[in-house]
Specification:
The protein has 275 residues and is α/β, with parallel strands linked by helices. 43% of the residues lie in helices and 18% in strands. The protein has a single domain, classed as Rossmann fold (3-Layer(aba) Sandwich). A hairpin with a 2-residue loop joins strand 7 and strand 8. Helix 1 packs across helix 2 and helix 7 crosses helix 8.
Length: 275
């Protein structure tokens, strides 16, 4: 039975024009050395989730925004997962990783078809880990939203209480719309990959920004309502760099959201990835 799981993570600690050169990551654009180290330390949490997936599951490192720091964070997750599982016979790691930016769309699609065929043969008992970074439109603010964000950015620099104020007063972009837009984006990604893996369990790993994720997590933890009280349910603090959450669709039709050692049950109608 096909099943979709979604991992959401905030990007690693970002660089700014004031970041000293010696603090910049040497390999990954847009993040600091400290941020890179913190993301690598969190990968075991992801690996534990991968271990619990059923046979024939596909792990796809997929969703990013236009910001380089989200792609860099996703690359670190992929690199570390491949390192952890490289000697495992029950996990397939394609020799030629799919990289939209480097290989071009058509070659990437051909590679996906090849992996899909492989998973239907004797390798089909195994799990697969695929790196396929896709820019998701809904993960990136439009020019209009950038103007609306100005109020939020000024508050976000002050702390989590100001983010709670943004959610309560709806300053800047509407947080409810942001949450629903993100779900629209991952639904489209799910539908795209379902063309290649129609019956497999798929776990998508996505990297985005605070603000959008704060709104989404509040929405999921608070039964589709984005308000200050819902923000308090997830701890009343903005999502930290590299912090991970998991949205699961269970065989009995229930939807479960795990975040910060808490488990929230979501109403069945809150989101259907296969719509």
């Amino acid at each position: 039975m096909k099943k979709s799981e979604f991992i959401f993570s905030r990007h690693a600690k970002r660089t700014t024009p004031e970041t000293p050169k010696e603090e910049l990551s040497e390999k990954y654009f847009g993040i600091t050395k400290e941020g890179e180290k913190e993301i690598r330390a969190r990968v075991k949490e992801l690996a534990d989730i991968v271990e619990k997936l059923p046979d024939k599951s596909i792990v796809i490192l997929s969703g990013v925004s236009r910001a380089g720091r989200t792609r860099s964070t996703l690359e670190i997750y992929g690199s570390e997962l491949r390192s952890i599982f490289k000697d495992r016979e029950d996990i397939v790691i394609p020799q030629k990783q799919i990289e939209e930016k480097k290989e071009g769309r058509h070659e990437s699609l051909d590679n996906l078809k090849s992996i899909s065929g492989m998973m239907k043969t004797e390798e089909g008992r195994k799990k697969a880990i695929i790196q396929f970074p896709l820019w998701i439109k809904q993960f990136t603010a439009s020019l209009k939203q950038w103007k609306e964000w100005s109020d939020y950015f000024s508050m976000a620099k002050k702390g989590s209480s100001e983010i709670a104020q943004w959610i309560e007063e709806k300053k800047g972009p509407n947080p409810l719309k942001l949450a629903k837009d993100l779900l629209t984006g991952i639904r489209r990604v799910n539908n795209f990959f379902r063309k290649f893996f129609p019956e497999n369990t798929i776990m998508f790993i996505n990297v985005d920004h605070s603000g959008e994720l704060d709104a989404l997590f509040t929405y999921l933890a608070n039964e589709g309502v984005v308000e200050k009280e819902g923000f308090e349910k997830i701890g009343g603090k903005e999502v930290k760099e590299g912090e991970i959450s998991q949205l699961s669709f269970l065989p009995d039709g229930k939807i479960e959201f795990k975040y910060r050692d808490a488990v929230f049950s979501c109403p069945p109608g809150i989101f259907n990835p296969n719509d």
